[in-house]
Design a protein that fits this description.
The complex is a heterodimer.
Chain A lengths: L6 H17 L12 H18 L17 H13 L9 H14 L2 H12 L5 E4 L15 E5 L2 E12 L6 E7 L10 E7 L5 E6 L8 E12 L3 E2 L5 H12 L5 H21 L5 H30 L7 H24 L9 H9 L9 H12 L7
Parallel strand pairs in A: 1-4
Antiparallel strand pairs in A: 2-3, 3-7, 4-5, 5-8, 6-7
Helix pairs in contact in A: 1-3, 3-7, 4-5, 4-6, 7-8, 7-9, 8-9, 9-10, 9-11
Chain B lengths: L6 H17 L2 H9 L5 H9 L18 H14 L5 H7 L13 E5 L2 E3 L6 E4 L3 E3 L1 H4 L2 E2 L9 E3 L14 H32 L1 E2 L2 E2 L4 H27 L2 H26 L10 H13 L4 H12 L2 H4 L6
Parallel strand pairs in B: 1-3
Antiparallel strand pairs in B: 1-2, 2-6, 3-4, 5-6, 7-8
Classes of the chains: A alpha+beta, B alpha+beta.
The complex binds flavin-adenine dinucleotide (FAD).
């Protein structure tokens, strides 16, 4: 067991920090949360800077245009960019973490050439059209239909909770191509242009007041058959590749950020006198233990991925279960420290407290994660 | 960075597990419950296997390994509920004659409690002093844990409340205890899962019911988080990492043993099942080194320092 970094890893860190110190002051001011064109431009601008500096697609394989970095280098990258206050991946999330890696793993040479470079260069934004009104946790129950018509699929149905839909150029879309097959076997994965005729995006307001996600209505949208990644009706397996990426290193930067917020919360308590309450101090101490351990678990999972050639293990579900809870506890504690100000939306932590509520739902609810842990890691039987 | 067990560490763990399976299996555990007392032959066998001398340098007759290896040993000891003042004797190796080889059984005063006083040859206070048993004026408790005899020192004894010692020894004691708790957490999770797969009600294994399944899933989550914390603290030997490890390992063991009991139903409430032995031992261990409040306060205080605010970049 070794927690020290190799000289090469330390050199990678040093070079990165130096670059961050140089470029971060040149960034434009952050756009407001509801300014989608502004957010898109800002997030893509940052991706372009990463690309120019050779940091784009760090964890992607080299033959997909990535840097082929080790999981540990990726960890260092996420840690240091967060420490330096660099922009979050933002609108680039689906492209860089789901759709891109899926195309890299399952796409043809032509598909890789068409879609991967614009993701890396910060030119195109992707969204994820998986969930539907009647297919959430039971994703395989999705009903959006695709019929073959010549060289096109004709797609009709609706998607929901599609993050970044307003900013997206492309949607990684799951559709039903064989309604007679068992539900996991009749699904295909398509890349759908968001500007295709028949696509209507209706923003949904979240409880935090912003429009992070949207409904997407599809009315006889024509998508070329050439845009299908993987075989027809093999989309479920193709999708699982994507989802395992999602649970790999998706939260590294956030754990780092939570540790910083926790220290800020302690500082605030010190200033406003609540620090004198031993019950509160003990709660802060316990949260500190929690986030320290979550960081260690991240390092453990990353080291494990290093041993398996970069494939994220099932440890991701264990991590997500505890992390999502810890994040909510953190902001509940922040609210306790804020006192009456915990009701003031002008305080950043209050908005973050609201956002933290989605963590036990998005990307597989905590109940579903517990099913996964129990059935896949512990070997408990499926219920009837 | 390679935060995974090395080949040698895996082999060490497998070796200890084998040794304990041979020398302290379930039958031996239940026999120990029925006839309390320290098994000197087993103690010497542990000594011969390097359990106590593990961290002594080789030129002092030790094995020359470190805390990471020690936590693996203590985790295994925790899994099988190996009785005896293991931590105190391990920490006395190289200091108290015969401790390293398992000839001498060493216990220590922890606050007002002393484990295994009657069986011990030597009683220590902190890391330096050795005291006469009589000087403690200790009275026996009817110990909650059938496998851990306990004494309480007299309130007016000069040693009452003694808990200090060199910081690294206190920290090592806390870490090794956390490793034992990790063993209980892992073992109670396994026991619960085994039972949940075998026991049927309403025509299916109870493990197919989500209420049971989710209890088990959370047991694993707590265990794995505690494992990451304990192993990392063994690598860094940082007192705050150890404080964190202790908090998470206590939580994983205490809640794990309770949930394991719940999954066993009425059987879990019996003397016959091993579950209560884990819960009771976990309670005993959670008292060592004072209450959890101290660890929580230390971690909280650190948040106000520059180090605390420096985000995630730690070793
Ligand atoms: C902020 C946010 C962003 C999102 N972004 C996207 C996106 O970009 N693209 C996309 O496709 N989707 C996205 N989602 C959707 C997300 O994946 C779903 O919300 C999630 O999978 C749950 O589905 P659901 O909302 O239909 O809830 P349901 O599945 O209806 O669940 C409701 C409740 O029932 C429980 N439940 C359901 N099934 C079981 C079971 N088998 N056992 C036990 N309990 C069960 C759930 O745990 C939950 O508590 C996003 C969601 C959020 C909150």
């Amino acid at each position: 067991m070794d927690l020290s970094y190799t000289p090469e890893e330390e050199e990678f860190r040093a070079r990165l920090k130096e670059w961050l110190a140089k470029v971060l002051p040149t960034l434009p001011p952050k756009p407001s949360p509801d300014d989608w064109p502004g957010r898109r431009a800002y997030d893509l601008g940052w991706q372009r800077m990463l690309y120019d500096a050779g940091y784009a697609g760090l964890h992607w394989p080299v033959d997909a245009g990535g840097q082929g970095a080790t999981p540990t280098q990726h960890l260092i990258f996420l840690e240091e960019t967060e420490n330096a206050g660099a922009p979050y991946v933002g609108a680039g999330f689906v492209g860089l973490l789901h759709a891109g890696p899926t195309i890299a793993a399952e796409g043809t040479a032509a598909q890789r050439a068409r879609w991967l470079p614009p993701i890396l260069r910060g030119e195109e934004v992707w969204c994820q059209g998986f969930s539907e009104p009647d297919a959430g946790s039971d994703l395989a129950a999705l009903r959006t239909r695709a019929w073959r018509d010549g060289d096109d699929y004709v797609v009709s149905g609706s998607k929901i909770w599609t993050s970044h839909a307003e900013a997206a150029d492309w949607c990684e879309l799951l559709v039903r191509t064989d309604p007679t097959a068992p539900k996991h076997r009749g699904i295909s994965w398509l890349a759908m242009p968001m500007d295709a005729p028949g696509v209507t995006v209706r923003p949904l307001r979240t409880l935090a007041g912003s429009t992070e996600f949207a409904e997407v209505f599809l009315d006889e949208v024509r998508v070329p058959v050439a845009n299908r990644v993987g075989a027809e009706n093999d989309g479920w397996r193709v999708t699982m590749v994507t989802l395992s990426f999602e649970r790999g290193t998706a939260f590294v930067g956030e754990v780092v950020a939570c540790r910083r917020v926790l220290a800020e919360v302690a500082g605030e308590a010190r200033r406003n006198g609540r620090w004198d309450d031993p019950v509160l101090r003990r709660r802060l101490g316990r949260l500190s233990a929690e986030f320290r351990a979550l960081w260690r678990l991240t390092q453990w999972n990353v080291s494990e991925a290093e041993g398996t050639g970069g494939v994220p293990g099932t440890g991701g579900s264990v991590f997500k279960l505890r992390y999502s809870q810890a994040r909510q506890d953190l902001y509940d504690t922040a609210a306790e420290v804020l006192g009456p100000e915990a009701l003031d939306l002008g305080r950043e932590w209050v908005i973050d407290r609201l956002s933290s509520l989605s963590y036990t739902i998005a990307a597989g609810t905590s109940q579903i994660q517990r099913n996964i842990v129990a059935e896949r890691l512990l070997g408990l039987p499926k219920g009837r | 960075m390679r935060f995974q067990l090395t080949e040698d560490q895996r082999a060490l763990r497998a070796g200890v597990r084998e040794l304990l399976a041979a020398r302290f299996d379930r039958e031996a555990l239940r026999a120990a419950v029925d006839t309390p007392g320290l098994d000197r032959a087993l103690w010497r066998a542990l000594g011969a296997a390097g359990f106590f001398a593990l961290r002594l340098p080789e030129d002092e007759g030790g094995v020359g390994l470190g805390l990471p290896e020690a936590v693996l040993l203590f985790e295994e000891a925790g899994r099988v509920l190996l009785p005896g003042p293991l931590v105190a004797t391990h920490l006395a190796a190289g200091v108290v004659e015969g401790a390293a080889t398992g000839e001498t059984v060493v216990t220590s005063v922890d606050g007002s409690l002393v484990e295994w006083l009657d069986a011990a040859d030597v009683v220590r206070v902190g890391d330096a002093r050795t005291v006469e048993k009589d000087a403690l004026a200790a009275v026996p408790l009817r110990s909650l844990d059938p496998l851990t005899p306990l004494h309480r020192t007299a309130p007016d004894s000069a040693l009452h409340g003694a808990r200090d010692g060199a910081h690294d020894v206190v920290a090592a004691a806390a870490l090794l205890t956390a490793a034992e708790q990790l063993g209980t957490a892992a073992r109670t999770c396994e026991l619960a899962v085994q039972h949940a797969r075998a026991r049927e009600q309403f025509g299916q294994p109870i493990g197919a019911f989500q209420a049971v399944k989710h209890l088990c899933a959370e047991m694993l989550v707590r265990t794995e988080l505690a494992r990451a914390a304990v192993y990392a603290a063994a690598v860094t030997a940082d007192p705050l990492d150890i404080a964190a490890a202790r908090l998470l390992a206590d939580e994983a063991a205490l809640q794990g043993a309770r949930d394991c009991l719940q999954v066993h139903g009425g059987m879990g409430f019996t003397w016959e099942a091993d579950v209560h032995l884990h819960l009771k031992r976990a309670w005993v261990r959670s008292r060592r080194g004072g209450s959890a409040a101290g660890a929580e306060e230390a971690l909280a205080a650190d948040l106000l320092t520059a180090r605390g605010t420096s985000g995630g970049h730690m070793l």
